Amino acid sequence: MRWLYRLLLVLLFGFLPLPILIVAVSSFTSTGYFTVPLASLSWRWYLEFFTDAQWLGLLAVSAGIALLVAFISTSAALLAALVLDRTRIRGSGVIESLIMLPLVFPNAALGVAFLGLLGLLGVSGSYLGIVLAHCIITLPFAYRPILNSLRKLDPALGEASMSLGARPAQVLRTVTLPMLKPGLITAFLFCFIVSFDEATITVFLVAPDVNTLPVRILTQIQESASPVIAAIATSLIVFTLALVLLLERTVGLEMFAAPERDH
């Protein structure tokens, strides 16, 4: 029976990347429509993407939003982890559950909820509204690795620094933050990836003059089947995989494991 399980695993993991491979192959077609197999190879659609001011503008907008969201979410997750892990407050478990709550709900449901909430705040259909929504959905991806890193620190290091005359702010700046670097890098990059690739929630929050690259790709697929979409999608997949591989090679992905206190 073991060979059957292995065969099922091979078929499963071989089937999962198949749609991505089809999109990647079709992006090199020389015709104006999707064809697999290819009649001939061409970089035509990649050149169109990287020379089109509209696509590049949306790429810059999405990257800017993702950078801002990653910075805000990482900073907020750091503060939350420090407070919940280093101080004893009532309801800390409830607060942690609220932080991780966006992972529970479907993205479509979150999109409808954000649409109503941001409408009440008067920022619906604006880049500010998109940033606020992305900060909430990326917060769990920042909180877990930072908390995991924090719980691997030896509290005696901070206590020793304070016994030598260092103030809490100095301990945070010179001891805690440098040792939290792997968790902070992991949190920042994953928040960037999640925000940059988000389309399901964002589609509820855009406006005629407010758009992002993933949402534009989604709407363009509904309007036409130009192979430039396949070229853009392939470029984004390669970019995301490169970030994940960089993260794995530098600090590792074990930061997302269940946090355990070593000391």
TrEMBL record:
<keyword id="KW-0812">Transmembrane</keyword>
<feature type="transmembrane region" description="Helical">
    <location>
        <begin position="183"/>
        <end position="207"/>
    </location>
</feature>
<protein>
    <recommendedName>
        <fullName>ABC transmembrane type-1 domain-containing protein</fullName>
    </recommendedName>
</protein>
<keyword id="KW-1133">Transmembrane helix</keyword>
<dbReference type="GO" id="GO:0005886">
    <property type="term" value="C:plasma membrane"/>
</dbReference>
<comment type="similarity">
    <text>Belongs to the binding-protein-dependent transport system permease family.</text>
</comment>
<feature type="transmembrane region" description="Helical">
    <location>
        <begin position="94"/>
        <end position="118"/>
    </location>
</feature>
<feature type="transmembrane region" description="Helical">
    <location>
        <begin position="56"/>
        <end position="82"/>
    </location>
</feature>
<dbReference type="InterPro" id="IPR035906">
    <property type="entry name" value="MetI-like_sf"/>
</dbReference>
<dbReference type="Pfam" id="PF00528">
    <property type="entry name" value="BPD_transp_1"/>
</dbReference>
<dbReference type="GO" id="GO:0055085">
    <property type="term" value="P:transmembrane transport"/>
</dbReference>
<dbReference type="InterPro" id="IPR000515">
    <property type="entry name" value="MetI-like"/>
</dbReference>
<feature type="transmembrane region" description="Helical">
    <location>
        <begin position="124"/>
        <end position="143"/>
    </location>
</feature>
<keyword id="KW-1003">Cell membrane</keyword>
<feature type="domain" description="ABC transmembrane type-1">
    <location>
        <begin position="59"/>
        <end position="247"/>
    </location>
</feature>
<keyword id="KW-0472">Membrane</keyword>
<keyword id="KW-0997">Cell inner membrane</keyword>
<feature type="transmembrane region" description="Helical">
    <location>
        <begin position="227"/>
        <end position="247"/>
    </location>
</feature>
<keyword id="KW-0813">Transport</keyword>
